[in-house]
Amino acid sequence: MIRCLDSGTVSKLRGSVLVESPEAAVRELVQNSIDAGARHITLKFHFDTLSLCVEDDGEGIAEEDLPKVGLANHTSKYDSSQSYGYRGEALYALYNTSSCVVVYSKQRGGSRWQSKVLGDEDEKIDRVLNDFFGPSFGPHGTVVMISRLFGPFPVRWELAKRKVAKLMRSIWRVLFMSLATSKTTVEAYLIESMDEKSSVRKVLDTRGCSTIPDLFVTLFGPSKLDFYHFQDHNTAIDMYITQEPILRRDLKFVFFENRSLYPPKEWCMSIGRYIFQLKYGSMKGYFNQSIDNQTGYVILVTSTSTSRRLLSNFMPERSTVHKEILDSVRKAISSVFMDDNANKITPRRGRVNVAEQASPSTSCTISSESEDDTQNIREVSQDLFKSGPDVINQVDSSFILIKSEQHIYIADQHACDERVIYEELLQEFLDSFHDPFIDMRVKCPVAIEIDIEAAHMNDLVARKDYLRSFGIDFALQDSKIAITHLPAVLISKAIDISSLRSFMFELADVLHEDNLFRCHSTDWFRTIERIPKPIREVLATKSCKLAIKFGKRLSTNEMAHLIGELGKCRLFTQCSHGRPTIVPLGNIDTLANYKAFQEDFTLQ
Question: Where is the signal peptide (predicted)?
Answer without folding.
Answer: none
